[in-house]
Amino acid sequence: MSVGPALALGVLTAAASILLRWALTPLMGGEERFVAFFPALMLATFYGGLTGGLSCLIVALLVGWYVFLGEPMSFVLAPHEADGLIALLVDGGAIVAGVVAVRRLIANLEASRETERVLARELQHRVKNNLAVVESLAAESARGTNDVASFLDRFLGRMRSLSAAQRLLSREANLQARMEDVVQAVLAPFMARDRIAWSGAPMELEPSQAMMLALCLHELATNSLKHGALSCESGAVDIAWSRSGRTAEICWTERGGPEAAEPAQTGSGLKLLRRGIEPGRSATLVFTPSGLTWSAVFQAKGVEVAEPSRSAAGASLQRLRPS
Predict the structure, then answer these.
(1) How far is CA 129 from CA 133, 224, 226, in A?
(2) What is the DSSP pairing of strand 204-205 with strand 247-255?
(3) Which has more confidence, 86 or 191?
(4) Which of 220, 224, 247, 231 is nearest to 301 (CA)?
(5) Cβ neighbours around 102 below 10 Å, total
(6) Which tens digits make up the pLDDT trace of 84-121?
(7) Sorting pLDDT into bands at 50, 70 and 90, what band is 189?
(8) Distance between terminal CA atoms of the chain?
């Protein structure tokens, strides 16, 4: 609740408690002057937060002092009544602090539940993707093999690469990752006869960037294996990254495959790709007759390195080798 409504709630609940206590005066006399105040204070704090609770406390304290303590309709206070006013202030402050703590606990629990729901949806989506990947890898490994031993050797090698990609996504949050390591770990299981290429200068990624990049690359490769360039013999994928100052960009470009068409419905995978690598940074998806193109901008870490990553004889283009 914003400040304005919280203040209004605090004032209204304080006024309601004072009017209720005034109505009960014939029954209660001068005893328990603030009996109706504490429930109102709890309500104001619970729904209006710290602002609502403090405004209710201050209004009820001043009006109650003016109406119920000392001489009626004045702030003249007898010495023996000062202790009651101080006790009211202390008790009211304790109620506000306690209810605020409960509100924070409830908010944390709600945030935890939402995190669990997001993780559960992502896990379900990743499991479906992994099953599709395993099926496609099995079919791809079976092509060109004439015996079970050859098939198992090729298939299990790719499965080990897929396992390596999963371990990368499960690393501790304080570990750093290099761009080329993320690309190789995630895409090695999708290698299909030297049809995935990457190029770019050495670049370090923040842990959150590495995680999001791995998820995006996994999503892109899975989609390409099922529907895109990697689903046919003539298709290929080029991955390139670069940086200018503190801004970096990575691009995924498919060519030679089926025409890319935007899905009629926006699934979780498409939402993941459009979110990109960093919150607040742009990511674009372009569906063209030549294939899908995806690019994401993110903040670069460390200093810029001019030399291409793991350059061999001046060549910046690297090829992923089958496992």
Answers:
(1) 6, 12, 10
(2) unpaired
(3) 86
(4) 247
(5) 13
(6) 677 777 888 888 888 889 888 888 888 888 878 877 88
(7) confident
(8) 56
C-alpha separations of 219 from 58, 170, 269 in Å = 56, 16, 6
What predicted TM-score, i.e. pTM, was given to this entire model? 0.48
Separation between Cα atoms, residue 72 and residue 75, nearest integer Å: 8
Answer for the pair 277, 296: CB distance below 8 angstroms, yes or no. Answer: yes
Bridge partners, residue 248, by sequence = 243, 298
| Structural domains in the chain plus CATH codes | 3-111 (no CATH), 188-319 (3.30.565.10)
Say how far apart CA 198 and CA 194 lie, in whole Å: 11
Q: d(Cα 15, Cα 21) in Å, to the nearest integer? A: 10
Look at residue 239 in the predicted model and tell me its pLDDT.
94
The candidate with the shortest Cα–Cα distance to 166, out of 188, 148, 146, 186, is 186
CB of 323 closer than 8 Å to CB of 191: yes
What is the 8-class DSSP label of residue 226? Answer: H
Kindly report, residue by residue over 8-18, the tens digit of the pLDDT. Answer: 777 787 777 77
Quote the pLDDT of residue 200.
92
Q: What are phi and psi of 212, to 5 degrees?
A: -65, -40
Strands 196-199 and 291-299: unpaired
Question: Which residue type, as a one-letter code, is found at position 68?
Answer: F
pLDDT at position 14 is 76
Spatial separation of the C-alpha atoms in residues 300 and 181, rounded to whole Å = 16
The residue ranges of DSSP E strands in the chain, in sequence order, are 177-178, 196-199, 204-205, 236-244, 247-255, 283-288, 291-299, 317-319
